[in-house]
Amino acid sequence: METILITILRTLLGFAVLFLLTRVLGKKQLSQMTFFTYITGIALGNIAGDMVVHRDIKLIDGVTGLALWAFLTLTIEYIALKSPKARILLDGEPTIIIKQGKINEKAMKSNKLNMDDLTMLLRIKNVFSIKEVDYAILEPNGQISVLKKVEYENVINKDTGIPLTPRKYLPSELVVDGRIVKKNLIELSLSEDWLANELKKKGISRFEEVFYAELQSDGTVVAEKRSK
After folding, report:
1. Is residue 108 within 8 Å of residue 98, measured between CB atoms?
2. Among 196, 193, 173, 198, CA closest to 183
3. pTM to 2 decimals?
4. In this predicted model, what pLDDT tens digit does every residue of 7-47 receive, in sequence order?
């Protein structure tokens, strides 16, 4: 029983420290934008895991290791923020894979990409033929940015000549599972009375009847009742 309690305490401590350090490292670490941040995330997870599982590792040693690794990561990120050369060294830089419709074989080899990899990355961007691509750039995080040839670009609203109405609001949730999302109402400068009136127009008298209600960009409300 004592062994189980010790394991639980070590797990809770490891979880708390790892959560705190992850918050300190920021959103870039969470998104794993580069190879460096990806490796950092794995390393922190391994240190926390070893601290929990291996009893021969003292808690203070595990916490110190986590804190030191996080400190070094923050230091490196700060240096990269201040120095463009250091940023390129640590994060790498974008590589042009396709230029003016032609595949750069040298860039493909240097980034260890084969044609299957390239076509897969293009399909993720909804490009199913290389002939549609004018430029393709491999970003430091492993994703690809694509600029289509002019003849394959999608028509945008501006090109149609149709009069456009600016968006009034960002589409936002107003009611979820019978509960008002008050934070969104406050941000949108809308009141519960206004929302109640909008719902009444749709034959809904109580918020509890609503399964989902969303504000549209033009100011209208779309609502769906709960199933009986």
Report:
1. no
2. 173
3. 0.59
4. 777 777 777 776 776 676 655 554 456 666 777 777 777 77
